[in-house]
Amino acid sequence: MSDNSRQEILNRIAAVRPKRVAAVEVQRVDSEEIYKPVMPDAISCFKSELEAINGQCIVCENESEIILKIKEFLDSKGLSTVFCRDSGIAKTLSEAKISHTNNPADFETMQVGITACEYLVARTGSVLVTSASESGRQMNVFPPIHLVVAHTSQLVNYLTEALVALQNKYGKDLPSTISTITGPSRTADIEKTLVLGAHGPKEFVVFLSKI
Questions:
Q1: Cβ count within 10 A of residue 154
Q2: pLDDT confidence bin for 24, thresholds 50/70/90
Q3: Statement: the pTM of the whole predicted model exceeds 0.85
Q4: Which domain holds residue 59?
């Protein structure tokens, strides 16, 4: 760039500077609601928000019903084996005689994976996950169908509550990755047409136990 060109650019910047409008002062709001209320209750709100973005939430009375619903779901999809790295879930699957594997050789060909989670956020229908789980990060993005097993004790109203709970749980040793999953993977980058499963699971199902 020549000296003349550089000076011309600087002159233009100098000419525009006096016309710039000062930033609007931000006022703190204490009395007004920032978020929409969670209605009619946390479970119903989470379910409706997740299903509004093409996810599924299957509410169960207890863990026994969760197993029954998982079996029904797998049968409806014609699937026989679940990929699972979580030892607690794997034990439950074994007791229920549901075929599962965590063999690395089966990872790339898996059709469905199952994980636990940290928290559920009712207001947005989101699932908060971290790299601290036995499932790691891969299981949240790789399975074509992602199943999540959760309990109502993990359900909070807003994301801020989940983050505070996470900080209380781990203290200074926070997991290296903290993220939220809000429904199946989707994009509308191509001709503004919604495509599910573009960058991750095409189906996302939360099995939520009340007890």
A1: 18
A2: very low
A3: no
A4: 39-209
